[in-house]
């Protein structure tokens, strides 16, 4: 079974150890686990903001 763990926690915490433990258990049972840490990816905030109050109405 293929499983993806997507960790969006911005800081290292005890939750990471828990996820690593879960990953080890799943791999021991034969699953293929991909563990993605979003804080390690070069993601950028583009600053796009939608103002619903001043947006033109669709007709």
Give descriptors for this structure.
25% helix, 59 residues, 20% strand, alpha+beta, 1 helix, 2 strands, two-stranded parallel sheet
Q: Tell me about the largest β-sheet.
A: 2 strands, parallel
In the predicted model, the low-confidence regions spanning at least 5 consecutive residues are: none
- What's the overall geometry? elongated
Count of discrete alpha- or pi-helical segments spanning 4 or more residues: 1
Query: SSE order in H/E notation?
Result: EHE
Beginning-to-end CA distance, first to last residue: 48 Å
The beta-strand count equals 2
Q: How confident overall, as mean pLDDT?
A: 85
Q: Which strands sit side by side, in order, in the main sheet?
A: 1-2
- Rg, Å, rounded: 19 Å
Helical fraction equals 25-40%
Percent of residues in β-strands: 15-25%
Overall SS class: alpha+beta
Write up what this structure looks like.
This protein has 59 residues and is α+β, with helices and mostly antiparallel strands. It has 1 helix and 2 strands, in the order E-H-E.
Helix and strand arrangement:
Blueprint: E1 2-7, H1 14-28, E2 32-37
Can you give me a brief rundown of this structure?
The protein is α+β, with helices and mostly antiparallel strands. The chain contains one helix and two strands.
């Amino acid at each position: 079974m293929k499983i993806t763990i997507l960790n969006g926690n911005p800081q290292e915490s005890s939750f990471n150890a828990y996820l690593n433990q879960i990953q080890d258990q799943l791999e021991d049972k034969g699953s293929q686990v991909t563990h993605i840490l979003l804080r390690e990816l070069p993601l950028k905030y583009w600053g796009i903001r939608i103002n619903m109050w001043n947006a033109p109405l669709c007709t």
